[in-house]
Design goal:
Elements: E1 9-12, H1 22-37, E2 41-46, H2 58-68, E3 78-79, H3 84-96, E4 100-103, H4 107-116, E5 143-146, E6 155-160, E7 164-169, H5 170-173, E8 177-180, H6 188-198, E9 203-207, H7 214-223, E10 230-234, H8 260-274, H9 284-301
Parallel strand pairs: 1-2, 2-3, 9-10
Antiparallel strand pairs: 4-5, 5-8, 6-7
Helix pairs in contact: 1-8, 1-9, 3-6, 6-7
Protein name: Glutamyl-Q tRNA(Asp) synthetase
Pfam family, one: tRNA-synt_1c
GO molecular function, one term: ligase activity
Length: 306
């Protein structure tokens, strides 16, 4: 008896901290093409939980830019800020299971603890578990952290469809991580896992800057009883200094062309070339007709990853 294939559901999840730039266009294009090649669904989710970084009107600009590029999402776009009860329910589940505790450590205190233990400065992001057994006298909670497993259970391995086999020890490389920030903002790791689970995402296609986050998300999916999606992390676009292209590094909006031909030449074709796609088109609709089979050929060129 053969099993029924699981329908492909992918997503693009930008933050409205400004207009889309070339790096975000590459990620959007890869996720869109992967959904099309697999005859799947492509969802759009605006990740707007970091309210301090949100730019007024940026979400509407993102939707407009995608449509100008010829990328239409399926169904209605969603906003994380409208889904807060889902995150609250997930946190309660984790608390009921005894997996969450209050942490009173500042970033400097964490860094000092790591250095005092003989660790290098680069290891400052690995939380040493200072508050695992309760807050020190006089300490107030600054965040809520999730306990990571110990020993062999802390090792998470997965096969990325682009980057190949990955492995991370949550205890030694991450430590207990934040699920609710001290300012009341939901942490990315929790929100993205809850949203992917609620939306039935089966394949996550995004930039390689998030590759390191994946084991934490796999662990969260396990403790919340959610399935693991597949992952594909494409290379990130960098600036002349080798830094990831982002709003923080001065990335400019890609959608500044006055007409479709200029948009094709200045954005769509360069993004396709960055992904290793051979596309030659002078109209946006022709671009996508060529780009979809080109993505299928690109996937076939990737080495087999067990």
């Amino acid at each position: 008896m053969t099993s029924t294939p699981v329908p492909y559901i992918g997503r693009f999840a930008p933050s409205p901290s400004g207009p889309l730039h070339m790096g975000s266009l590459v990620a959007a294009m890869a996720s869109y093409l992967d959904a099309k090649v697999h005859h799947g669904t492509w969802l759009l989710r605006i990740e707007d939980l970091d309210y301090d970084r949100n730019v007024e009107g940026a979400d509407r600009g993102i939707l407009a830019s995608l449509q100008r590029c010829g990328m239409q999402w399926d169904g209605e776009a969603t906003w994380q800020s409208r889904r807060l009860p889902l995150y609250e329910a997930a946190l309660k589940q984790l608390q009921d299971d005894g997996l969450v505790y209050a942490c009173g450590c500042s970033r400097k205190e964490i860094q000092d603890s790591v250095l005092q233990a003989g660790g290098p400065k680069g290891a400052a992001t690995v939380y040493p578990g200072t508050c695992r057994h309760g807050l020190a006298p006089g300490k107030a909670a600054r965040a809520l952290r999730l306990r990571v497993p110990q020993g062999a259970d802390a090792v998470y391995a997965f096969a990325d469809r682009w980057a190949g086999p990955q492995r991370q020890d949550l205890t030694s490389e991450v430590g207990d991580f934040i699920v609710l920030r001290g300012d009341g903002y939901w942490a990315y790791q929790l929100a993205v896992v809850v949203d992917d689970g609620a939306q039935g995402i089966t394949q996550v296609v995004r930039g390689a800057d998030l590759l390191d986050s994946t084991p934490r998300q796999l662990y969260l999916q396990d403790v919340l009883g959610l399935p693991h999606p597949g992952f594909l992390h494409v290379p990130v676009v960098t600036n002349d200094s080798g830094e990831k292209l982002s709003k923080q590094t001065g990335a400019l909006a890609f959608d500044t062309a006055s007409n479709a031909a200029d948009l094709l030449a200045s954005a769509l074709l360069p993004a396709a070339r960055f992904l290793g796609l051979e596309v030659r088109a002078d109209k946006v609709e022709d671009f996508w007709r060529q780009a979809i089979p080109a993505w299928a050929r690109r996937l076939a060129q990737l080495p087999e990853h067990p």
